[in-house]
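Late entry, written up from scratch paper. The run itself happened at the end of the previous shift, but nothing got recorded in the book at the time, so transcribing now.
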Amino acid sequence: MTTRIARDPIYRGRRFSPEIIELCVRWYITYRLGYRDLVAMMAERGIEVSHTTIMRWVLRYVPEYERRWARFARSPGSSWRMDETAVSVRGGRHYLYRAVDRRGKSVASLLCNDRSMESAQAFFRAAVSQGPCRGLRRSTSTATAPRTGDCACWQRKIGAGRA
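Output as recorded:
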């Protein structure tokens, strides 16, 4: 008598095996291949799949994979820096505030219409509320806010809490 293979519930009702789905999605993400390139690669392996099917797999499974892999991701480092960049969005000038740790992991980001003290303070509120205020103690490099290394001073100014 045959026994059923234990299958992850996210793949239930799919025609292709989970290994094929994971392989296509992983190659699409890792090597920036096009859907039609993946169709050709799968055809070399004897698997006939449509490019729209691979697109549906990417749209369906990438958010689930990110959710599962987030458990194993490192938390942001204890020291992080703020950066402000002017970007064009739909023909208008906007400002992107980002906080990045030493390893390049994003701590927080905020897209604003204007470059003002209020925008910088809103970004700092969001960044400080997402984790402990460890990174602001060493150094803070900002374009719009005054330079200060005192975390407690910034928290008093932006009303984010205690140090």
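Helices lie at 18-31, 35-44, 51-69, 117-129, 151-158.
(Scratch paper discarded after transcription.)
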